[in-house]
Amino acid sequence: MAQNNHFAENFLGSLPILVPLCWVYSIDLLGTDEGSWLLAVIAILGTECGQLVKEWMKPQPVPYDDPAVWFDRLAETVGCVATVLYLTVALFVVDAPYFTHLKTSLAHFEVSSSAVWVPGLMWAILLANGVYALPLGWRYGRSPRVPGVIVSAVLWIIGAAALILFQAFVPSPNSILGPNATRAVNFCILWFYLNALCIQATRLGIALRGVGGAARERAQQHVQQVEEDAEWPTGP
Question: Is the full-model pTM beyond 0.90?
Fold first, then answer.
């Protein structure tokens, strides 16, 4: 049963990626310049939405003010918000066929095309999640100053920054992808690097911040509850 639940969780969590990819294929945009960028946008949005679906499918609900939970959720939420900002900025500064089409459609309020409203809906879901989760994560997200967490975050930050600095992208031209498809792939790679930087910088900030405020109160309540349970056993 546990294996079946795990398979179902992974399968459903992958739907935000698999379904859009099949949809892009069905509307005959594969192989076109516009289709390459649409696939890149859908891949980015689908990855983030897939993480949300996996989070929603967790069988055991947890207290909304649990510091340990929000240590991870805050970092993931920052990555989610960074993705929203990344795509928003790209819409106006990146010279790509799909973004040109998208700006024209939005300017004329033509949102009936699935190439417009599907990414728009996914973008809106990520934005709504960020607006809801970011304040809670900022309030309750705390962590003791664990050296392993700090070192891991620092290494991730250095690694991602180095990859950007030394331009670790798909070279252009190459024998596999065309120039436009290569730009779209590198657009996704740059998002991955920047997303990792945002997430790990958040983890580092939380770890250096230490336990305090509402998180300390929550931890004290937990310790007190454990002591009371040990003093007044309810079972045989």
Answer: no
